[in-house]
Amino acid sequence: MTDKALIYSRFPKTMMARFAERFELLDTGGKPAREVFSADELGGIRAVLTAGGTPLGAEAMDLFPKLGAIVCYGTGYDGVDLKAAVARNIAVGHSPGANAASVADIAMTLMLATTRRILVADQYVRSGDWAASKPSPMMRPQAGMPGRRIGVYGMGEIGRKIAARCASFESEIGYFSRSRYDLPYQYFPTLEALADWCSVLMIAVRAGAETQHAVSADILKRLGADGYVVNISRGSVIDEKALVVALTEKTIAGAGLDVYDQEPHAPDALTALPNVVFAPHIGGHTLESHVAMQNCVLANLTAFFEGRPLPYEVK
Q: Model's pTM, two decimal places?
């Protein structure tokens, strides 16, 4: 009998094609599972495939009495109630580091686009203002990368790749993380100390209760009027309301955002601001990253159905 897996989140069918070759997939299309499938169908589900940020708590787990594995497509797993999973003896897997290079690349893209005001410069050319020699205060010289102090919040796989990329731009690198590592970067004991020191704060920390709104109004104030914040982690790490105020009142100079508190909706108060560069959560959205993430999902599901431990289990 073909092994069955339920697709709990909404995914493009092209992203599920490799899994369909190996497993029988029951696709909810992102709708509540009980609205799409009968209790009998859900009762036989042993594995669930989900996006890491999709809420999947105890009540949802109880829809699947035989559930033994929750496999997240991607690095994140913040939507999964890990305590509830442990209590039900459900293994949780993810794709650690599979998209780290791509996410680090988008972090650099957002930082450069923001600090060098690329969108403003693009419009300056398109509008004809450059050809007309029309002066623009937004086109005044900005600080470059050599000597710039870059603070990395979270020194996991992604954070390390961001730091290495920034170092190649001749910038100074500092970081704050739960653990101190043997790295050639300055370590700061608190996020407050890091924000006081740096002019660009790169958020690469894992989302969770302990990082909810960790980048608060106080942290933004510490960055200062010439400071920037770039978030490629999860929208929940920044206090979005405080960010709007800081950008509007010029408490900080700008922001580059790939993630938002209530995706896929970026608040109008943010999108109306000229000193923010946006991306629609595409950090890990490259061909290479998807192949790597799919490899991890396939390995996790295959191991589970063969009665082996998940090779990429959340620890």
A: 0.91
